[in-house]
Design goal:
Layout: E1 8-10, H1 11-18, H2 22-32, E2 37-38, E3 46-49, H3 50-59, H4 70-75, H5 79-123, H6 127-134, E4 136-137, E5 143-144, H7 145-151, H8 156-165, E6 171-177, E7 180-186, H9 188-198, H10 214-218
Parallel strand pairs: 4-6
Antiparallel strand pairs: 1-3, 2-3, 5-7, 6-7
Bound molecules: zinc ion.
Zinc ion binds near residues 206, 207, 209 and 210.
């Protein structure tokens, strides 16, 4: 909240600033056609704005006498200034009360939102838990295609081509392993298809379970 304080002067301050007696001051006002502002707290108290005071000073060739120190004012606050301050305090109080209403509404909305959030959290797992649940662990009957190909020293691009052509059937989908995630896997039948297609290649390396038939697995 930003409160701007507009500089204004009560008549008694004006007499001092312009070094003029009240009677002459009133005459100046009439001549300059200046209409003073009337205090809302006390209609007997009138004041001028800074530009109005400067206009009078200019017209009558007066230098403004800013010789009233803050300390003097604190000890001897003129009635007019007191009323002026009372106006400003009441403005600030009103603004403060409006602000409190807004803060009350906001904090109420905030606690409603927090309640909603907690209800939602109770109903569904956290996003982290949800994403973990989506990536299922690798079942024991599936193996990582990439490392299986590597283990048999088979060319990855040829394996890729054979899968595309439908000679080897792989499973696509992210699975979790102890070493990380895998994208593509082979089941028992897929591993045997792999062996059938790839073992004639030069450099093919047999593993302990080749040729990956059901029987070989049982041994
Ligand atoms: Zn093998």
């Amino acid at each position: 909240m930003h409160i701007t304080t507009k500089k204004t002067y009560t008549f008694s301050e004006c007499y001092q600033l312009l070094n003029v007696d009240p009677k002459t001051f009133r005459r100046w006002l009439e001549r300059a056609e200046i209409v003073p502002t009337v205090s809302r707290a006390d209609s007997r108290v009138k004041f001028l704005t800074e530009p109005q005071v400067q206009l009078l000073a200019q017209e009558h060739e007066r230098e403004l006498h800013h010789d009233t120190t803050t300390q003097e004012l604190a000890h001897n606050v003129p009635y007019g200034m007191y009323k002026l301050l009372a106006d400003r305090v009441s403005d600030v109080e009103q603004e403060l009360s409006d602000t409190r209403d807004v803060v009350d509404k906001l904090s109420q909305r905030l606690s409603e939102l927090e309640e909603e959030r907690q209800q939602r959290q109770a109903l569904s797992p956290t996003p982290r838990a949800a994403s973990k649940a989506k990536v299922r662990p690798l079942p024991p009957d599936l193996v990582n295609l990439y490392s299986f190909t590597d283990e048999h020293r088979a060319p990855q691009n040829e394996v890729r081509r054979l899968i595309k052509a439908g000679f080897i059937h792989s499973h696509v989908g992210k699975r979790r392993t102890e070493k990380g995630r895998v994208d593509e896997t082979l089941d028992q039948a897929g591993r045997h298809e792999f062996w059938v297609q790839l073992h004639p290649f030069e450099g093919f390396q047999m593993c302990g379970q080749c040729p990956h038939t059901k029987e070989s697995e049982q041994i």
